[in-house]
Design brief:
Largest sheet: 2 strands, antiparallel
Number of helices: 14
Order of helices and strands: HHHHHHHHHEEHHHHH
Strand content: under 5%
Number of strands: 2
Helix content: 55-70%
Structural class: mainly alpha
Strand order of the largest sheet: 1-2
Shape: elongated
Amino acid sequence: MRFYAGRDEKVPVSQALVDLGRDLLLRYDFDDAQGMRDHNVAGVVKETCAGAAGQDTARAVCLSLRDRVDDYSLSYGDVHDVVRTLFKLHPEIALDSFLLGSRPVARSLFVSGFTRFPPIESLSAETIRAWADQDPAVRYPRVGEVMSLFRREEYEEGNDLSPLFVDLLSTAPDKAAFLGEPRRRLHPRSYGGSLADVLKVRKESFETLLDDPDVAAWYANVRPILEGWISNQRREDGEAEESFE
């Protein structure tokens, strides 16, 4: 509470309080980091992990969260504010912690675990690119795995291309590796109305990228699959309509 009182009163936070906050973060197990508690813990992270002096604590918190998600005892959605704050304060540390290692974070946990914007999508293309360019063969595919090709609204994925994804795709050395598996890249996780219509719009959106020969080569193999999804869904829609007649 002293952090918040000090903020309202514009009183500098003492080093002793910062040190105490760092110690508490290192001991905190995030078992009940939901809702307002997530918001409050994020406030402690903001006050204690900023700057070079807070890097070690930020890294330790990132790795602790990573371990908890790996063993399925925690969802990223439970610590949305904490993770976003870590990405804002120390993007390179957060990217290292969550995207590298022998067990890269599953896209389903990292992307769909957030009801709002995934934290990586709050970073600029320049920040992500600077990190990925340090080891392009490994890092660009890891970035691609946890980003959506389509622009996200506040709570769901739309059908317009994400400018951030397209920007990073343009400099990815291996476009096929960055784009990854077709279904994960093009199929919606949720949708309203006709799935066939959604897939058709996504197909048209993606085809605006085909001036790049490497993207076109990836799509040459994917297009028959995508058209098959649309055709099959149209048939299922027709059969469903007939069953109601």
